[in-house]
Design goal:
With 468 residues, this protein is α/β, with parallel strands linked by helices. The chain is built from 10 helices and 15 strands. The strands form 5 sheets. Strands 7-11-2-12-13-5-14 form a 7-stranded mixed sheet, with helices on both faces. It has a two-stranded antiparallel sheet with strand order 1-10. The chain is globular and about 70 Å long. This is DUF1552 domain-containing protein.
Length: 468
């Protein structure tokens, strides 16, 4: 008996998702594939998202706590979302909300400087020499990146790399160097789906030749250098070897046709000055990249910290001027509500993306795309500039063994919070509760993504409550 999908026109089959795609692979639709003849192996994907400026955390005695606290009320499977979090209500069985996690080396860092270490757990500090580590996504990219055209997709609203302690990217390579993020939808779309000129093979050959010459010169130069200079050169050559790998991979995919995508519904020239449409477009591009198996790893930094950059305009989607200012104005009448409305907007767009994945059947696999995609959404700040008790949502990944429908509260009944009154900021105050290492979550995620590891940075265990 042949699969019913074989009788469907592929474009018609996918049009029900709101987009018409011609996928490069769809094993379950191959004419010669019969039920029971092969074991379906689902892809395993990872996407990580970061939003800046923390979240509303009015104290328990504050009347705003009931409606506008970001973290739910209750715990375990018995919890209720606040108005801030209602977009997740229809997805509560597909996600878990986490509190009481942070990176130990950054708990006393000002919130303006903490995004750099969100996926790395590095001691990037507040000032002085700067050093970072490989990010969670790039470890996964090293594991599965050879199976897709692009090892990972790195995106942000502000684009580029930003500055040390003011990053515009979540992704860092094995040497701790930032990987530039793309923020222009048309550039991302063209990279994924539009064929470049016919000189690609010639350019790759020239690149390979240039790299060969560079490595030969470096080998000769190395013999004349001091030990310190040799170390610096070796670090540089690691980057050259990364480029070699990319060139070799590009050659492999050179003659593989790009997926065909109907993008009539997308405004690829949209900018953050149209915030809601911009976010929806960026999420849609990740969806299309995953749907066509162009990559299985993606990061998107929704905004940078410190209120610097065009991402600070995103609050205009809900009638406010600048996003960062909302976190400063919670002491004003209606301040918690205003900040909560903005967070509701971000949650709404992330929930829309999750729903898109949930409503799309997995190509050449079982379950939905959401079942085969693990998604981390959160920030490295909670209360005002406080680098503790990160607000986190882990979603999807049911086919990877994740169990959801919970609020895992490890922060206690009354975590730090409250409006800033102009005195000492929360990050300067004594630590009132010892968080768990966020790297424990990363180890759990990596293992469910089939990366064999027992350690990430300063982890001291796993989050067993999330897995079967």
């Amino acid at each position: 008996m042949t699969s019913p999908l074989n009788r469907l026109d592929r474009r018609r089959f996918l049009r029900g998702t709101g987009v018409a795609l011609a996928l490069p692979w769809l094993e379950c639709a191959r004419p010669n594939l019969t039920f029971g003849s092969e074991t379906v192996s689902n892809p395993k994907r990872l996407a990580c998202f970061y939003f800046p400026d923390g979240v509303p955390m009015p104290l328990v005695e504050d009347p705003a706590h009931q409606d506008w606290s970001w973290f739910p009320h209750g715990g375990g499977s018995e919890f209720t979302f606040t108005q801030c979090m209602t977009p997740f209500e229809s997805l509560r069985e597909d996600l878990s909300v986490l509190s009481g996690f942070s990176h130990p080396k950054s708990r006393s860092v000002h919130g303006h400087s903490n995004a750099d270490q969100f996926l790395t757990a590095a001691d990037t500090g507040s000032n002085g020499p700067y050093e970072n580590n490989i990010s969670l996504d790039q470890i996964v990219a090293e594991h599965v990146g050879n199976q897709t055209r692009y090892s990972s997709l790195v995106m942000s609203t502000d684009g580029g790399t930003g500055t040390p302690r003011g990053t515009h990217t979540l992704s860092f390579n094995r040497n701790g160097r930032p990987i530039p993020a793309e923020n222009r939808p048309k550039r991302i779309f063209d990279m994924l789906f539009v064929k470049s000129d016919n000189n690609a093979a010639q350019r790759l050959a020239l690149s390979q030749s240039a790299l060969d010459d560079l490595l030969a010169d470096a080998k000769a130069l190395r013999k004349t250098l001091s030990a310190n200079d040799q170390s610096s050169l070796d670090e540089y050559l690691d980057s050259v070897r990364e480029a070699e790998i990319k060139v070799e991979k590009a050659k492999h995919w050179l003659n593989t046709p790009l997926p065909t995508v109907d993008a009539d519904h997308l405004n690829l020239n949209v900018t953050p000055d149209e915030p809601r449409q911009y976010l929806q477009t960026m999420f849609e591009l990740i969806y299309l990249a995953f749907r066509t198996d162009s990559t299985r790893v993606a990061t998107y930094q929704i905004g940078r910290e410190n209120g610097v950059g065009i991402s600070d305009h995103l609050a205009r989607a809900v009638g406010f001027n600048l996003s960062h200012a909302l976190s400063h104005e919670t002491k004003n009448p209606g301040g918690w509500k205003n900040f909560g409305i903005y967070c509701h907007f971000l949650n709404e767009e992330f929930a829309r993306f999750l729903t898109r994945l949930k409503e799309t059947a997995e190509p050449a696999g079982t379950g939905s795309m959401l079942d085969n995609t693990m998604l981390l959404y959160g920030s490295a700040s909670s209360a005002f500039h406080l680098s503790r008790n990160y607000p986190l949502v882990l979603a999807g990944g049911k086919n990877m063994g994740l169990q959801h429908g919970k609020y895992l509260n490890f922060a206690g009944a009354n975590p730090q919070g409250g409006a800033w009154d102009g005195g000492r900021e929360p990050w300067q105050q004594e630590i009132s509760h010892e968080d768990r290492p966020l790297s424990n979550l990363f180890v759990t995620m990596l293992q469910q993504l089939d990366v064999q590891t027992e350690q990430f940075a300063d982890s001291d265990g796993k989050v067993n409550e999330l897995v079967a």
